[in-house]
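Supplementary Methods S3. Complex input for the guanosine-5'-diphosphate-bound model.
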Amino acid sequence: MRRSKPAKPAHGTTPPTPDTAQPVDDPAHDVAHGESPNGVIMSVGRGCAEVALDDQVVDARLSPELAAVQQTELAVGDEVFVSHRMGVVRVESVAARRTTLSRPDPGNMHRRRVLAANIDIAVLVLSVRRPAFKPGLVDRFLVALDDGGVQPAVLANKADLLESEVARDDIRDALAPHRALGVPVELVSAETGEGLQALRALVRGRRSVFIGHSGVGKSSLLNALDPRNERLTSAGREGDGKGRHTTTHSTLTALPDGTEVIDTPGVRAFGLWHMDRAALREAFPDLAAHAGGCRFRDCSHLVEPDCAVRRAVEQGDLAASRLASYQRIHESLAS
Ligand code: GDP
Ligand code: ZN
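Predicted complex, serialized as structure tokens:
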């Protein structure tokens, strides 16, 4: 579902009028192959992109070379070299990426789609009720981020729907293994504002990407972070079915304080291209901490006798949910 028309403005940015889309030829901007990139991708459409240049956001075309490979080579957050020639703003090429977050292409699970580039922190949003709490996604998310650079964080949203202190403890318990790994975990509510101070502190001044199944409340949380509050939640989207922020692809929004947030479409899977089974064992540091006691040095912790990891689970020193997630991912990887 790619947009065929130029991308609509990310909310809060100056809408590109025909004037801003065709700026005067400014030599300072004409650095298509200059030393450093002069634009940042805010959203991507077919053959075009919305690009932030200095202090304005413009609709730009993609060079033919880039348009041919845009599905893999261009993502929100990419730093790009933009040229202005004869009234046409064009993205010529993409600078090397500092970090990426990828998922499998829905049409071809072996192909990689970059959801967001050059991010500092990835925030996984879960819902504690409606839709039901699915903490299993957290483990795969952490593995997907394991190749470095991007800090993970987890939000359990809709805390207002938890009916008792016991129910709140159940959520905290399910996420305790992740908190123990040093991952920030917050119980939040876009509805009541619970936990939003902590969320602001996590993302402030950085570039974050928000991920999660649709309906968990990503848009509502991003609205709550943004004083301008224009994003449509799915409740609002149901009305006309084509709201500006029907999130079928990622968009970057710059908040007034310089914080940048990237909203992604409902993500169902994370790609683990970089993983082999040995790397997977390392990506579960809490399991690996017990592996020294396994009889076999390359123990997979699945079937081998005398496995210290399985023993740790039996003795209550390691969460069974973590071992179960590890086993599920292990099965999904080529050996
Ligand atoms: P998205 O698809 O992840 O962007 O989810 P939305 O932000 O569109 O929210 C989905 C639905 O959940 C909407 O009806 C929201 O009003 C509702 N919702 C979002 N956050 C909360 C919350 O903290 N508490 C409650 N009770 N409902 C929420
Ligand atoms: Zn073992």
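Residues 157-158, 160-161, 189-191, 212, 214-220, 233-235 surround guanosine-5'-diphosphate (ligand 1) (CB under 6 Å). The longest strand covers residues 108-117.
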